[in-house]
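User: For a reading group we're discussing how well predicted structures match intuition. Take Amidohydrolase. Before you show the prediction, I'll give you the sequence so everyone sees exactly what went in.
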Amino acid sequence: MLIRNANLLNPGTERGIYDILIREGKIARIAPHIEAEEEVELDVQEMYVTPGLVDAHTHLGLKADSQGEFYADHNEKKSILSPEMRAIDAINPQNVNFEEARKAGITTCASGPGSLNVIGGQYACIKTLGHIVDDMVLDPYFAMKCALGENPKKGYETTRMGIAATLRNFLFQAKAYAEDPNHKFDMKLEPMVPVIRGEKALKIHCHEAIDIVTAVRICDEFHLKFTLDHVTCGAEVLDFLQKRPEIPLLLGPTLGHRGKVELHGKSFENVVKLAEGRDVCLITDAPVIPLEYLPVCAGLAIAKGMPYERALEAVTINPARVMGVEDRVGNLAPGKDADLVIWKDKPFVVIQDPVAVFIEGKRV
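Assistant: Thanks. Here is the predicted 3D structure of Amidohydrolase, as structure tokens, for the group to look at:
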């Protein structure tokens, strides 16, 4: 396929009108004018084209709206420590939320366990197109879910001291296991080995300022790779976070009401403050916010002062990097997956449905 006259909005590249050549599901070439004999040629007449959008924190296919607790597979309730749980064993691609996400231009997302448990299980990175999850997976385990604060407190009637102690004790066990060449196989400890070695990130649910600081303290103690997810009250410790620009911040869900105590800092003004001077991701935490509203979240951040380019990066290349799949998705470049979205008007600035969405070169 050859897409002609695309008004390209692509992170890290100059703006302009380009042709995009797609072959075998990959981008073959991007140039101001391409001479090629293709069976299908689509002239988009200078409409906007972006990479497929990416969300680095959802529960897509694990917790569905309209289906009740019977189909809620995001929280394993038998243990406060459940690292052996794998998202890919419960993600249901037949859920209608996948189609809704695709139609809105979201082509890749993270999906994984919820925040009931201190260690919740293995997060996956998936495409939003397909009916067999194994065919959709980019990485079946890119991060280990961890949670601090209100949710594990309520779920297990513990305190913040108890949560931190539980986490530290388990990390000590995992460290000893990883360092012992003669260890006996343990289903819970084995998936923690790449976390201890810094090969996989600890993906930490933390809304309140106190939990944000605790997350950093414990991860520094064990020299872990980690992300801070939600960071709703992060503006209260803005100076602390500004000293650590290397820590990925996954901000959201910001659209919607403040439904519990630890969401008192929720605002797009605070998102803009936290994003200043660093790369961030905007997240929906779907189905908390429906995944198809990710472009709306980007637009609201722009309305409160986030530069357009930074907002575009926050829903494309930044989450791709956080998940370690930037070699395939996140921006448009030769050799990458042909995941792209065509928009009639400038995306995020105007609320709209995409004109067309392509995932690996297939129009969906």
